[in-house]
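Input structure tokens:
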């Protein structure tokens, strides 16, 4: 059956063009022949922030933002969060299928085999100021790993890529824990391979003088679920950054460092830290109405609310809200949860948020749990980065195998001055003054 077509009529020329519709989309390049004069460049689509542009095809994560659905490789996030471990989900995201028991055993062992980092990394981290933000340290040390693994430049080899992916998944918690220990002035703790991925991370963060760290199973499970919930979210800002840098054939370490940098921003992964700062600032229930008023007047944003894709409750936020009770049973209740719930209640009844379809996102409640577990707000985005590492890598792998891969290079609509004569420096002042008059 022939493909369906979209017919466009250019009113400037009365010419009609037929564009092929495939997967409910048209190719932007098919717009190029649309021009008024033959010497023109041709029609572009203009889409700041890529709100309606598909930059790739993908088979990893599905989101239906209107219905609040999130699936990894077809599996609902709720089922994965309840029944899987993070490393199992990492395998699923990277390889497309859930592992068998035997495959998972090998995979977990492979991950453990790569948890150590070169001793010089400690010296590298030691070079940071005592109050350096852990995300800044993480971005830099991930990029620095590129210098330890020059073989990673061989991106054409699938076997080689697999090795680098393993290294990154394994070493991210180690780098994150080292950054944290540095900020606390504490000695670095080596990985303990008898522990699970998440338990070992807790060991590297919190072990003191005890010979063997014994993590709380409830907290370890909660953190593992949080890693699962953050593992992938299709073409978000940081994943698109990973793909953009990767498209230049850069190695995965520098590409992932770039993705971490994108995540650091308060509109993306940095929102979890910003939510806590916001709750601290609000301070009490009585302050909520005046805070909401400031938000509605456009003076600030309600952090942890709203999403480019979800126009419904973020399914990850629902799961996180449930985990909070398990965590609080061990740690005691974080009083900020009441403040957050009240903020949510008021916002969800308010016309401003209802009209714009703004709901709590993944970052609204996660920080409150992290804080109850003992994490400082500066670490929240680092935790997001650990979970998201496999998502970034799965997309990078997909890009490497994509027959349509080309270097990412968007177009622009140039609105600046036309060609003009150079002005010698001695004549510029007079020109500026005459412009100001
Ligand atoms: N508080 C108040 N108003 C908001 C908010 C908010 N959190 N989010 C969006 N709006 C308003 C915005 O002012 C605009 O109103 P108007 O139409 O009157 O100009 C409208 O809603 C649409 O907003 P937008 O900025 O065009 O939406 P976007 O899709 O470009 O931005 C967002 C999405 C997540 C950046 C934004 O909702 C936001 O800044 N939220 C707060 C930061 C946050 O929680 N980020 C974490 C996102 S989830 C984790 C992740 O995956 O990164």
């Amino acid at each position: 059956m022939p493909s369906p077509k979209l017919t466009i009529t250019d009113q400037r020329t009365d010419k009609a063009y037929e564009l092929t519709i495939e997967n409910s989309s048209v190719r932007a390049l098919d717009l190029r022949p649309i021009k008024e004069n033959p010497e023109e460049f041709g029609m572009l689509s203009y889409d700041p922030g890529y709100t309606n542009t598909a930059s790739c095809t993908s088979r990893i994560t599905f989101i239906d933002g209107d219905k609040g659905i999130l699936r990894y490789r077809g599996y609902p996030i709720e089922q994965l969060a309840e029944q899987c471990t993070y490393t199992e989900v990492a395998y699923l995201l990277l390889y497309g299928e859930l592992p068998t028991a035997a495959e998972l055993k090998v995979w977990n062992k492979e991950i453990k085999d790569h948890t150590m980092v070169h001793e010089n990394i400690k010296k590298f981290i030691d070079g940071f100021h005592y109050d350096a933000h852990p995300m800044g340290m993480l971005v830099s040390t991930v990029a620095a790993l590129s210098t330890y693994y020059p073989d990673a430049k061989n991106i054409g080899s699938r076997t080689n890529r697999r090795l680098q992916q393993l290294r990154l998944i394994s070493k991210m918690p180690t780098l994150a824990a080292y950054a944290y220990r540095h900020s606390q002035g504490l000695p670095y703790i080596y990985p303990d391979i008898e522990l699970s991925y998440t338990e070992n991370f807790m060991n590297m963060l919190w072990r003191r003088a005890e010979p063997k760290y014994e993590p709380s199973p409830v907290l370890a499970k909660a953190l593992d679920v949080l890693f699962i919930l953050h593992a992938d979210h299709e073409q978000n800002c940081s994943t698109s950054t990973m793909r953009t840098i990767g498209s230049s054939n850069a190695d995965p370490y520098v590409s992932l460092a770039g993705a971490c940098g994108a995540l650091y921003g308060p509109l993306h992964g940095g929102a979890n830290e910003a939510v806590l700062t916001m709750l601290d600032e609000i301070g009490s229930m009585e302050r909520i109405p005046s805070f909401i008023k400031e938000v509605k007047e456009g003076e600030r944003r309600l952090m942890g609310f709203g999403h480019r894709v979800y126009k419904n409750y973020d399914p990850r936020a629902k799961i996180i809200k449930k985990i909070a009770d398990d965590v609080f049973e061990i740690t005691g209740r974080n009083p900020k949860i009441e403040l957050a719930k009240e903020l949510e209640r008021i916002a969800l009844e308010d016309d401003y948020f209802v009209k714009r379809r703004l709901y709590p996102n993944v970052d609204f409640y996660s920080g409150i749990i992290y804080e109850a577990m003992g994490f400082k707000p500066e670490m929240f985005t680092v935790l997001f980065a650990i979970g998201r590492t496999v998502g970034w890598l799965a997309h990078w792998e997909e890009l490497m195998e994509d027959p349509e891969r080309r270097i990412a290079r968007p177009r622009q609509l140039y609105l600046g001055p036309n060609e003009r004569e150079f002005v010698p420096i001695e004549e510029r002042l007079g020109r500026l003054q005459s412009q100001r008059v």
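Residues 263 and 269 are 5 Å apart (CA to CA). Residues 5-46 form one domain.
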